[in-house]
Design goal:
Nucleotidyltransferase, domain 5, alpha/beta, 16% strand, five-stranded mixed beta sheet, metal-binding, 53% helix
């Protein structure tokens, strides 16, 4: 909710009726409080990070589908007093072409702001994008660039689904049906394979109701294929979830899950 919502006539009228003696703060006052809170938290986080001798970073680029603005997210991960901690260091807007050199500049800006020495960075995890890998190597060194294993699983399953014509046809049918019933059926996300898993899983649960309503996919063989696909994809979903935790170390599980 934007800060100017506090000054909109509808909300002011509602507050006047429900809590007539309450005087809501002005937008400028809220902005001032937020700035003060941010400055105070920056000091606390800098003190904490200054104590850390070793940390890793995860970074990724996300694009807002509504504004088409891209952002570079950077998160620090470290162990303190035998506990794994994660801190979001920044979400920088990218207003230029996403070249490796431009991304490197954003890395430098973030490290300088938080007064983090590159000597404390032991690894930087990214996806498989060439510009991201090059930016990490240029900024931190070739031995610091690691690729996200969960993303590897994502690419593997996506390719497997694309190479399976039978399931691809059914998935496309379900996607069309989802556009008519988004209230109850989960849609898929093109950048996350497990969203397809959740869509198939939810669709199978609601298949009888949906088939009666839309008269699509009434063939039992297609439902059997969906059921088999869910059984096949479930271990990959569990592995993806296992590698997505922030509360405990996951790199040591790669060999175990792979086997």
């Amino acid at each position: 909710m934007p800060l100017n919502a506090i000054e909109k006539p509808g909300l002011l009228k509602l507050l006047k009726v429900t809590v007539p003696h309450y005087k809501p703060p002005k937008r400028k006052h809220l902005t001032k409080l937020m700035d003060q809170k941010f400055e105070a938290m920056v000091v606390i986080v800098k003190i904490q990070l200054n104590k850390i001798k070793c940390m890793s970073l995860t970074t990724d680029i996300w694009t807002d589908s509504h504004t088409t603005t891209s952002y570079l997210g950077i998160t620090a991960h470290y162990i303190d007093q035998s506990r794994l901690h994660s801190i979001t260091l920044g979400l920088a807007a990218l207003d230029k072409s996403h070249t490796a050199s431009y991304i490197s500049e954003k890395f430098e800006d973030t490290l300088n702001f938080w007064e983090i020495s590159k000597d404390t960075i032991i690894a930087v995890i990214t996806d498989h994008a060439n510009n991201m890998i090059r930016a990490v190597k240029d900024s931190f060194g070739h031995d610091k660039a690691l690729q996200c294993y969960a993303h590897c699983l994502n690419l593997l399953v996506e390719q497997a689904l694309e190479d399976s014509p039978n399931i691809s046809v059914i998935i496309n049918k379900i996607k069309k049906i989802v556009t008519y019933s988004k209230q109850s059926v989960k849609d898929s996300c093109p950048t996350r394979w497990n969203s397809i898993f959740f869509m198939l899983e939810r669709f199978l649960v609601l298949s009888e109701t949906i088939s009666r309503a839309l008269l699509r996919l009434e063939k039992r063989p297609e439902l059997s294929v969906i059921s088999e696909a869910i059984t096949l994809l479930r271990p990959f979903e569990l592995a993806t979830k296992e590698f997505s935790y922030e509360s405990h170390v996951t790199a040591s599980k790669i060999v175990e899950i792979y086997n």
